[in-house]
Automatic annotation (TrEMBL):
Highest taxon listed in the record's lineage: Eukaryota
One Pfam family here: DUF247
UniProt cross-references to InterPro entries, sorted A to Z: DUF247_pln (IPR004158)
Name of the protein in question: Uncharacterized protein
Organism: Panicum miliaceum (Proso millet)
Length: 380
């Protein structure tokens, strides 16, 4: 036994060298790790279990953007369509007509920085990733430029395809860094610009800043936004205080849901509470309760709103640096808590519909199931 230990510790068999090399390799990884709360990641992936359980909410239906869904089966038609939009983009003016080579060189220059934005690795080499950045970046530019010109940049000009593409490019996992496509004085500058000097990390972050955190500021004076598929704010989301995590055994809510002091709409009506739609709300957060009347702006719930809301919640609650920099509280989670409390049954939907507050474009059972969807895993 003693002889075996001597052999393992002997320099002649290389064990000292092997041990030292392994320690050095591990130390390099330790040194390279960013301090907690100071990581470079701005584009995250939802946990696989969540994506697989709710593919209709979190995964692209028509078009991929960035590396996470690159090459996925079923998205090939839009991938080919990107090359047509790249051709159209390159035909625009002097700056856009710099040529493929100039844009590829620019993509190569930011490739390493862009790669560091992703919280999970992906199997693309530097050249392949640079090409993806050029193609997807120019696709996004041309996609929104055409919309500003009254065109639908979808295969065949199909309206349904355009709407799916629009919501696909606002998925949390389906992003490229904002600085890749929307930087400098490219033709996009007049169409899509972040508010003030705010650093924007990706398109979903831009939507959050323009339509959620700073809604309709100053009656929209000087406000530039990508808007929604119809050109306006996509969701009515009310500003609520941060939602506390429920403690074990406290509250009366259903297991797995946020506890709340707000009863369902039908029970509120039975207790004498009335609802009133605000005709001219100050902004999309303008909800108030006075003298037995709950005043709320009207909002629409459809398939697109379902997807966008779920991804805004995911961004707000787990979006890395961008989410940590928010100073407005858990705005979207506040909306989830409010509507999730009001809507527990088809009767609740009918109450909100009757007062002109909710316009539901879904089957009642689907709408109820959606607002009872367990998003509490995202809570901080």
């Amino acid at each position: 036994m003693e002889r075996a230990r001597d052999n393992c510790a002997g320099e002649e068999n290389g064990f000292y060298y092997h041990d030292d090399a392994q320690v050095e390799a591990m130390q390099r990884r330790v040194d390279a790790a960013a301090p907690l709360g100071d990581d470079p990641y701005t584009i995250f992936r939802l946990p696989a279990a969540v994506r697989e359980r709710h593919r209709d909410l979190y995964e692209p239906k028509v078009v991929s953007v960035g590396p996470y869904y690159h090459g996925r089966a079923g998205l090939g038609a839009a991938q080919q369509h990107k090359w047509r939009l790249l051709r159209d983009f390159l035909s625009r003016g002097k700056k856009a007509a710099a040529g493929l080579g100039a844009y590829l060189r620019a993509a190569r220059e930011v490739e390493a920085d862009a790669r560091r934005c992703y919280a999970e690795g992906f199997g693309l080499g530097a050249d392949e990733f640079a090409e993806l950045l050029e193609l997807d970046g120019c696709f996004l530019l041309e996609f929104f430029l055409k919309k500003s010109e009254g065109q639908l940049a979808a295969p065949g000009g199909a309206k349904w395809a355009w709407h799916h593409m629009y919501h696909d490019v606002l998925l949390l996992d389906n992003q490229i860094p904002f600085f890749v496509a929307f930087a400098g004085d490219l033709p996009s500058s007049r169409t899509i610009r972040p508010p003030g000097d705010k650093t924007i990390h990706h398109l979903l972050h831009l939507h959050y800043e323009c339509n959620v955190r700073n809604p309709a500021a100053d009656n929209d004076k000087g406000r530039n936004t990508i808007g929604d598929a119809n050109g306006g704010a996509s969701l009515a989301i009310w500003k609520q205080p941060a939602i506390p995590s429920p403690r074990s055994g406290e509250g009366t809510g259903r297991k797995g849901r946020l506890t709340s002091m707000i009863p369902p709409a039908a029970k509120m009506e039975e207790a004498g509470v009335t609802f009133k739609r605000k005709a001219t709300p100050r902004d999309v957060f303008d909800a108030s309760f006075r003298y037995g009347v709950l005043h709320m702006p009207a909002f629409v719930v459809d398939e697109g709103a379902k997807v966008l809301l779920a991804n805004l919640v995911a961004f707000e609650q787990g979006g890395g640096r961008a989410a940590r920099q928010q100073d407005g509280g858990n705005l979207v989670m506040g909306f989830v808590a409010l509507v999730g409390s009001l809507v527990n049954s088809r009767r609740d939907l009918e109450v909100l519909r009757r007062y002109g507050i909710m316009r539901c474009m879904l089957a009642d059972d689907d709408a109820v199931a959606y607002f009872m969807l367990d998003m509490t895993w995202l809570r901080t």
